[in-house]
Design goal:
- This protein is of the alpha+beta class.
- It has one domain.
- Helix content is 28%, strand content 33%.
- It contains one helix and three strands, in the order βββα.
- It has a three-stranded antiparallel β-sheet with strand order 1-2-3, covered by helices on one side.
- A hairpin with a 5-residue loop joins β2 and β3.
- It is elongated and about 40 Å long.
- The C terminus is likely disordered.
């Protein structure tokens, strides 16, 4: 996972049946502990063929989410 300065990214890759993979992610702002995105699956209806594919997609998702979060200047808290 690349470093996202100022944020703590916690993720879990989950093995699914039929050699598929899913991923859960949580993003917390380090400076004040604000949860930007609570533990969730950014792709709930998509199983990935490899762990690497899952990580690649979640990296893209995080980059877009944090760019939006930084541009808005708001917390995007999800339960």
């Amino acid at each position: 996972m690349p470093e996202f300065e100022g944020y703590k990214v916690v993720y879990e890759v989950i093995a699914l049946p039929k050699r598929k993979w899913a991923i859960l992610v949580k993003i917390v702002r380090r400076s004040d502990g604000i949860v930007v995105a609570g533990r969730h699956s950014p792709f709930p209806n998509h199983a990935f063929d490899t762990k690497l594919e899952a990580l690649d997609q979640v990296n893209r998702y995080i980059e877009v989410l944090l760019a939006t979060h930084d541009a808005d200047g708001k917390s995007m808290h999800r339960a």
